[in-house]
């Protein structure tokens, strides 16, 4: 017989897809009152199928909220100088309020050099060192979309995050580090773990808020999670096709185990991914208003 004391209700599923739809509806209503159309330029180098899907989704949703979308698709063989020249043109184009250069770039192109060329005022990814520095020092900044989306979900679910123990697994410049800055600003006690961390399961078990941004399918297991904790799964991993030829999308968290232990959890798909795109549109509106003095 099951001991009733050990039976926990399943975690609340945090619906990022639904939240993102509401955010896009709010943006559409705001854009309709602006009197101008914000413009987002997306640069895609090469033919990576996953990147093509994301870029298409971004363009569709950009137009749906009433903004202009400028897509620039370049062959993988394009030179670094040509990419830099395109970014320089977009910087000078008054119809362009936001510039996103899809990562990763082919190895012969220095991604840091490209990001440094983007006008920080149009850097809607928040990847330029000027925006990273502003975020770290508490100034007004364009904030990376994925961590911003995670923060919105957390604040919607919890209200204040003050005093909570947050553990982030992953220290990339695009997810882990800016996530840490945002949670610190929200008054969490923040730990960043990475591939050299000792006893990752024990570190994770301290977390009231656990953010997994590792890129390893289902790495975070149920017994790494403090009962009742909130789990944000940033990972997007496409598994190779199974015997039926179906390829499954999974996060960095073992959802089936985690949902038995956590208090709340974001699913993959339908969690953080849709929030990333909605926050990109949000940042484009923010950049447009700032540039145009609204
Ligand atoms: N939902 C969304 O919108 C987005 C999802 N993603 C997804 O999020 C995940 C992370 O992306 P990103 O930050 O760009 O990835 P990176 O590969 O840049 O960084 C991964 C981080 O995880 C750490 N790591 C790797 N292996 C381990 C391990 N075994 N134990 C502990 N830490 C480990 C690395 O440590 P170290 O620094 O020591 O190497 C690194 O800090 C990916 O699945 C990606 O697809 C990314 C962007 C947007
Ligand atoms: N300059 C740049 N900025 C980025 O923000 C950026 C990037 N490069 N390179 C790639 C990563 C990845 N990324 C995702 C965006 C949306 C989903 C998304 O919408 N996911 C859906 C569905 C995904 C699917 O079905 O394939 C979901 O999780 O529900 C996922 C991943 C942005 N990235
Ligand atoms: Mg992003």
From TrEMBL:
| Gene Ontology annotations for the cellular component aspect, listed alphabetically | cytosol
Q: Keyword set for this entry?
A: Amino-acid biosynthesis, Histidine biosynthesis, Hydrolase, Methionine biosynthesis, Multifunctional enzyme, NADP, One-carbon metabolism, Oxidoreductase, Purine biosynthesis
GO molecular function term, any single one:
methenyltetrahydrofolate cyclohydrolase activity
Q: Where is the Tetrahydrofolate dehydrogenase/cyclohydrolase catalytic domain?
A: 14-125
Associated pathway: One-carbon metabolism; tetrahydrofolate interconversion
Boundaries of every Tetrahydrofolate dehydrogenase/cyclohydrolase NAD(P)-binding domain copy:
144-291
Q: Which SUPFAM superfamilies match?
A: Aminoacid dehydrogenase-like, N-terminal domain, NAD(P)-binding Rossmann-fold domains
Q: Which residues bind NADP(+)?
A: 170-172, 236
Top-level taxon in the UniProt lineage: Bacteria
Per the entry, what this protein does is:
Catalyzes the oxidation of 5,10-methylenetetrahydrofolate to 5,10-methenyltetrahydrofolate and then the hydrolysis of 5,10-methenyltetrahydrofolate to 10-formyltetrahydrofolate.
Subunit description: Homodimer.
Would you identify the family this protein belongs to, as annotated? Belongs to the tetrahydrofolate dehydrogenase/cyclohydrolase family.
**What name does this protein carry?**
Bifunctional protein FolD
Q: Please report the organism this UniProt entry assigns to the protein.
A: Elstera litoralis
Task: List the taxonomic lineage.
Answer: Bacteria, Pseudomonadati, Pseudomonadota, Alphaproteobacteria, Rhodospirillales
């Amino acid at each position: 017989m099951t001991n009733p004391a050990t039976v926990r209700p399943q975690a609340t599923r945090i619906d990022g897809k639904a939240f993102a739809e509401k955010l896009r509806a709010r943006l559409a209503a705001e854009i309709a009152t602006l009197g101008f159309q914000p413009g987002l330029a997306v640069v895609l180098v090469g033919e990576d199928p996953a990147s093509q899907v994301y870029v298409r989704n971004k363009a569709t949703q950009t137009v749906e909220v009433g903004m202009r979308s400028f897509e620039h698709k370049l062959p993988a063989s394009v030179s670094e100088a040509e990419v830099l020249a395109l970014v320089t043109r977009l910087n000078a184009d008054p119809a362009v309020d936001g510039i996103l250069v899809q990562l990763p770039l082919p190895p012969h192109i220095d991604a840091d050099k490209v990001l440094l060329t983007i006008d920080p005022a149009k850097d809607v990814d928040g990847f330029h060192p000027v925006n990273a520095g502003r975020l770290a020092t508490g100034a007004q900044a364009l904030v990376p979309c994925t961590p911003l989306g995670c923060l919105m979900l957390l604040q919607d679910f919890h209200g204040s995050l003050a005093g909570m123990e947050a553990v982030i697994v992953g220290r990339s410049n695009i997810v882990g580090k800016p996530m840490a800055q945002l949670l610190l600003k929200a008054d969490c006690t923040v730990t960043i773990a990475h591939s050299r961390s000792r006893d990752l399961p024990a570190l994770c078990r301290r977390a009231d808020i656990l953010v997994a941004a590792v890129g390893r399918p289902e790495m975070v297991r149920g017994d790494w999670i403090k009962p009742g904790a909130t789990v944000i799964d940033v990972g997007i991993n496409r598994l190779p096709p199974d015997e039926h030829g179906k390829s499954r999308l999974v996060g960095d968290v073992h959802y089936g185990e985690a949902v038995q232990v956590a208090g709340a959890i974001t699913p993959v798909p339908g969690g953080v991914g849709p929030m990333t795109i909605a926050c990109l549109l949000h940042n484009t509106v923010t950049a447009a208003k700032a540039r145009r003095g609204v």
